[in-house]
Amino acid sequence: MAHHWLDSPTHHAWLDAEALRLLAFARASRLPQGFGNLDDEGRLPRCALAETMNTARMTHSFALAHLQGVPGCRELVEHGVGALLGPLRDQEHDGWYARPEGHGDSGKAAYLHAFVALAASSAVVVGVGQAQALLDAVIRVIEQRFWCEQEGGLRESFSRDWQQAEAYRGANSNMHGVEAFLALADVTGDSRWLARALRMVERLILNQAAADGFRVSEHFDEHWQALPDYNRDNPADGFRPYGTTPGHAFEWARLVLHLEAALQRAQQPAPESLLPAARGLFDSACRHAWQVDGAPGLVYTLDWHDRPVVRERLHWVHAEASACAAALLQRTGEARYEGWYRCFWDFIGEHFIDRAQGSWHHELDPTNQPSARIWGGKPDLYHAYQALLLPRLPLAPSLASALAM
């Protein structure tokens, strides 16, 4: 190809404009106790409730925006940090609820704590006053409760008082653990976080996925034995779907490249198998998930014979696919990744970007019409916003630290 979009000033301007459009839409998600879930038109429903996941994701995203120089975002970071230190935190037993106390007991999930750590690390880079206290608190909980040195991974979840542990291990929570640990390594200067991230990648990608055609098993028992039939009766679950999830293969591939770059930046040995693993994950996801049912787009899930199960197209899957293509293009310079990068953005531009009501449709049906089988409304800024930033940043350090350089 004549040139890379990653080197095009016009493409950079388009990414900037789309990022600002997403930010303008997302500002309406602010609630007294954090950030809530917006509907299709960008409004908070009457019964809107702050949730830890989106409060952490919004805090992280607004921190990135502030570091880019977008006015008005620092105060939103401060609001998010205050919510994560206040109503969303368990003041009695420590750790974080899924939603404020009194709105159901969901226990304590590694997935959520990974996002709290990501938000805290980004807020520290911004320099928000309470951010260091939040970072110290979430690091303590992760090290005392979730990280298992013997397993080289994160335990999944506990009851509110930490007395009951779930007999389950999840690749999704460990994947976001890798993301958070890379950020923690940058912010704390503690290389143990890189070593921990590598151990999760070794278990789930370099060993398990590499031995199975780069299919990423999502569900395991407490002894890390795969559970291939998990949620067979609930295949469209938003967090623990049955089968394999191509979107996670893209996300893992990108994180593998970030890990490789972070290890090299820290002058630590990086396994030679990291780049081949990233290639394998990307190739497998493209081969089995793109346009496999006759219509363009990436399906949500596949069975163990690589056949589509849930055919809806989710916005976060395509955001991660484009970000992964950009990372592989940056790492290798190979034209085929440029082709995929353009392909994914063309699809996003035609089908996901909602130019009438704002933001992106979060889900499309198998005919690429807006739907809400899995995800209703437009609550998520994190995936799309990061996809607009990552193509122009180095593979290491992590996003906030890279923007602050």
From TrEMBL:
Pfam families: GlcNAc_2-epim. SUPFAM superfamilies: Six-hairpin glycosidases. It comes from Pseudomonas xantholysinigenes. Transmembrane segments: none annotated. The keyword Isomerase applies. It comes from the Bacteria. GO terms for molecular function: isomerase activity. Keywords: Isomerase. This is AGE family epimerase/isomerase. Belongs to the N-acylglucosamine 2-epimerase family. GO terms for biological process: carbohydrate metabolic process. InterPro entries: 6-hairpin_glycosidase_sf, 6hp_glycosidase-like_sf, AGE/CE.
